[in-house]
Amino acid sequence: MDAVSRPAAHLIDGSLYVFRAWHSMPDEFHDADGHPVNAVHGFTRFLCELLERVRPEHIAVAFDASLTTSFRNAIYPAYKANRELPPPDLEYQFVLCREVAQALGIPVLIDHTYEADDLIGSALWSLRGLGFRSVIVSADKDFGQLLGDDDEQWDYARGTRWGPAGVHERLGVHPQQVADYLALCGDAVDNIPGVPGIGAKTAAALLAHFGNLDALLERVDEVSFLRLRGAASCAQKLREHGEAARLYRRLTRIALDAPVPTDAEALRRQRVAADGMDALCERLRFGPLTRTRLKALLG
């Protein structure tokens, strides 16, 4: 079955778009109890626009449950320790954003042990076995490691899409090398230091030559003879920090065994009653335009 005829599932990195709405929407929106709901309004507009444009049959939104409880924190306590915890107002809005998605019939994926990336990766992996291709709606570079031949990543805000070839254009490595690449050069966003002295270009060059992290570390003595600036120093750093790099790869590799539905029907957008949406619109004090869009989408 070719890519065009394969059904597509849209897998949304929900937390990213809630944070974007939180930072971009003015603080003038409040719910019936007086709580700020600017992120909820922005996230709802994003969902409405996506559903209106795509009309997907199979879709899910994945959320991070916490910054401190994933299996990666147990492996490496400093993981994401550089990030501030969401303020209570935003935590409150995350719950409401999940309610909006569910009221639109969109399956929600969330787990305290696995992050949104893992839930999306595991759903993609299951769907691929059922003949689906996936569209990952996110700007996060980590997702590049998941893209198969027919999959796409969609940076919705910038209106750009790319497949496996686009991963190489952006990072200089192939999808199957992304986790190794991030383990080598680090990922400041997640507080993963990488191997000292190895930047993005060097990491890409090393993986282009050796293929993967394990081969690189097994043949580390060859690094000194490569045409790389500071090759001898690079080889020494790899000897000193090789085991750390393997640890970092356990952090950068997206899990494919998170607890997600394994049948396509569970990830199909559901028909839901309008009365639940009506009550939610009242609580969130949505304006007439948003209410009209939401009701049309339920219809």
Structure description:
With 299 residues, this protein is of the alpha/beta class. It folds into two domains: 8-167 and 255-298, Rossmann fold (3-Layer(aba) Sandwich), CATH 3.40.50.1010; 175-252, 5' to 3' exonuclease, C-terminal subdomain (DNA polymerase, domain 1). The chain has twelve helices and six strands. The chain has a six-stranded mixed β-sheet with strand order 3-2-1-4-5-6. The radius of gyration is 21 Å and the shape is elongated.
Overview in brief:
The protein is of the alpha/beta class and 299 residues long.
Pick out its properties:
6 strands, alpha/beta, Rossmann fold, exonuclease, 299 residues, elongated, 47% helix, 2 domains, DNA-binding, DNA polymerase, domain 1, 6-stranded mixed sheet, nuclease
Helix content: 40-55%
Number of helices: 12
The CATH topology of the largest domain is what? Answer: Rossmann fold
Question: What order do the helices and strands follow?
Answer: EHHEHHEHEEEHHHHHHH
**Euclidean distance between termini CA atoms:** 32 Å
Q: So, CATH architecture of the largest domain?
A: 3-Layer(aba) Sandwich
Number of strands: 6
Going by helix content, strand content and strand pairing, the class is alpha/beta
Calculate the mean pLDDT score and round it. Answer: 96
Shape: elongated
| Assigned CATH superfamily of the largest domain | 5'-nuclease
